[in-house]
Design goal:
single chain, 359 residues, alpha+beta, 5-stranded antiparallel beta sheet, 4-stranded antiparallel beta sheet, 19% strand
Length: 359
């Protein structure tokens, strides 16, 4: 964070604290109730952004679908032409016309005539094969385009449902927030608090959260090399391999990758991973888990189950957006090219990945 944003963050956080204390002095709402209102207010802001992202994607898909429909119509027109040509070729074989041509070649009276007729025969057969091949290519291309249209139609349907659900969420949250603000002892102070939080989040908060996620994603690119250099990092039993990463080793690795992790640390617990830290007036906590994914390639994928920024939990839309934008997983085949991950688990202080030979 540069100096300007640091000062901005410190000022706004101080303002939030003062206004929070002021709101509590009126009797209602309590700091916990105020925090709940602010969290819902922040969720509304983030879900609104998700609605914007859905609308943009929906527009892109609508345009893509229209282009595909035009493309499909052109392909259908072309395939009718190729279909007629291919049909003529097939009929010629079915009626024996090509057999007659072959017999003419075989009935040549001299070697010179034989070679000339055979060349003609090869040219005709070659053109037949080109016509049939072109028809097959056109047909295959038309099928692929039709499949893409079906896929975009399905995705548009999902987006429409998602859009409706998110709008309903926003309306419900807004209704709750309006009711809580109206019932508070000082609605004007609470509203100002929400406005300041929105400005703070959109101008500082989201960029700082993304900064940590970007640093994590970049560090994970170098994790395979780090594991290879660790003594005992990889063990084997027959054809099975195991990768073990201790949380202290991982934290040391991250600090070597980027100074931002000096005040940020991972903690491994039973089927749960927590990463948290504080710098200046910014607090961030990430809770999640790893799973083995095989598409589009074998990987250990990190899923964000909970994201808390300055004691305010962000909604699932923000978690999914960050997961999509930043790859926090790693790829075992970059460590051993002939293996694939089959299982991943965490216990107290240890991350363990089971590997098997990939055939």
């Amino acid at each position: 964070m540069n100096r300007r944003y640091s000062i901005c963050a410190l000022f706004i956080c101080t303002l939030l604290f003062v206004q929070l204390t002021s709101a509590y002095a009126y009797g209602e709402p309590s700091p916990e109730e105020t925090r709940e209102i602010l969290q819902k207010s922040l969720s509304i802001v983030e879900i609104d952004h998700e609605i914007e992202r859905i609308a943009v994607r929906q527009k892109e898909l609508d345009q893509q679908q229209e282009e595909l429909k035009v493309q499909l119509q052109e392909q259908e027109d072309q395939i009718h032409i190729q279909q007629d040509r291919a049909g003529a070729v097939v009929r010629s074989y079915y009626t024996g016309e090509r057999d007659s041509l072959l017999m003419t070649v075989l009935g040549a009276r001299s070697f010179k005539d034989l070679f000339i007729l055979y060349d003609y025969y090869q040219i005709i057969i070659g053109r037949d094969q080109a016509v049939l091949s072109k028809y097959q290519d056109r047909y295959r291309s038309m099928q692929e385009t039709s499949t893409k249209i079906s896929q975009t139609t399905a995705e548009l349907g999902e987006l429409k449902n998602n859009l409706e659900n998110q709008r309903e969420r926003v309306l419900a949250l807004q209704k709750e927030v309006d009711g809580q603000v109206s019932a508070s002892g000082n609605p004007a102070a609470i509203q100002k608090l929400m406005d300041e939080l929105t400005i703070y989040w959109e101008n500082v908060g989201i960029y700082e959260v993304k900064r940590y996620f970007r640093a994590l994603a970049n560090a994970m690119q170098n994790l395979p090399e780090f594991i290879q250099e660790q003594n005992g990092g990889i063990s084997t039993t027959g054809t099975a391999y195991t990768i073990r990463i201790g949380q202290e080793d991982l934290n040391q690795f991250l600090r070597e990758q980027n100074p931002i992790f000096e005040d940020f640390a991972f903690q491994f617990d039973e089927d749960r991973i927590t990463a948290s830290g504080q710098r200046d007036q910014l607090q961030l906590s990430i809770e999640g888990h790893y799973t083995v994914e095989n598409a589009p390639q074998n990987s250990i994928r990190f899923h964000v189950d909970k994201l808390v920024f300055n004691q305010l939990e962000l909604p699932d839309t923000t978690r999914r957006m960050l997961e999509k934008e930043f790859d926090l997983g790693f790829y075992p085949q970059k460590i051993l090219s002939f293996v694939k991950a089959t299982d991943v688990s965490t216990s107290k202080g240890v991350l363990e990945v089971k590997l098997a030979i990939s055939f």
